[in-house]
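To the wet lab folks,

You asked to see what we're planning to order before we commit. Fair enough. Below is the target structure as tokens, and below that is the sequence we designed to fit it. If anything looks off to you, flag it before the synthesis order goes out.
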């Protein structure tokens, strides 16, 4: 398919724009858009789940939950962790994010407050058991709205580990962090590196093929997983 095709341009943008634009502040995703956080909001029957990558963005929540869902989303800082590239390729062609231990680093994350139906949907979209495992982290490591009094936060831990760069994880430059110890690059740069190592032909054509060809994504994922850095025991 020609890259002048609008659908190819949309696929390319979706891959390269990951992890997508977050809202400016805590927000209520409702009516398919980010609305101001209400003065009163009952979070007691919702599960707090860390959004380390695209799940922070209203556009991604709309893709996952549609126009009718209501999801509170709050900002937080998480201690002793960073947001790094996972050692797999998402079905839309991006190299997605995962949390990874990083002593003395504070990283900006968001928390999605999900009801039971939304949590089940999120598990499905995160390919739990295939790409990620659902795990928990001590909420005392986080500082943000609604966290006080919560014992643990859910998060999605990459099953294949972190993408390795010279033997170390590689952070997402789009995600803010304090005292970051890891090198950080943008999505476009990491995809360009993968194209140089594992691709053929022009970058745009290869990236479009990556978004369309499950076998190619699997092949690149296998290559990334071969020297990935596992979650420390």
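Sequence we intend to order:
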């Amino acid at each position: 398919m020609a890259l002048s095709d609008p659908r190819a341009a949309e696929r390319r943008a979706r891959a390269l724009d990951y992890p997508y634009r977050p809202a400016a502040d805590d927000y209520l995703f409702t009516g398919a858009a980010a609305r101001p956080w209400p003065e009163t909001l009952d979070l007691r029957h919702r599960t707090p789940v860390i959004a380390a990558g695209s799940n922070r963005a209203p556009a991604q929540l709309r893709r996952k939950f549609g126009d009718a869902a209501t999801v509170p989303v709050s900002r937080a800082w998480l201690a002793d962790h960073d947001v790094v590239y996972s050692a797999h390729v998402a079905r839309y062609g991006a190299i997605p994010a995962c949390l990874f231990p990083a002593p003395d680093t504070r990283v900006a994350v968001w928390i999605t407050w999900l009801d039971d139906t939304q949590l089940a949907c999120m598990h499905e979209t995160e390919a739990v058991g295939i790409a990620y495992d659902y795990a928990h982290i001590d909420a005392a490591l986080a500082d943000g709205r609604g966290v006080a009094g919560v014992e643990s936060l859910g998060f999605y831990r990459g099953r294949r580990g972190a993408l390795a760069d010279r033997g170390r994880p590689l952070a997402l430059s789009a995600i803010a962090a304090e005292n970051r110890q890891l090198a950080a690059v943008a999505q476009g740069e990491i995809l360009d590196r993968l194209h140089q190592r594992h691709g053929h032909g022009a970058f745009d054509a290869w990236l479009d093929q990556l978004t369309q060809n499950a076998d190619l994504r699997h092949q690149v994922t296998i290559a990334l997983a071969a020297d990935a850095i596992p979650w420390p025991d």
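Structural context that might help your review: The first helix runs from residue 6 to 16. The chain has one domain: 6-225.

Thanks,
Computational group
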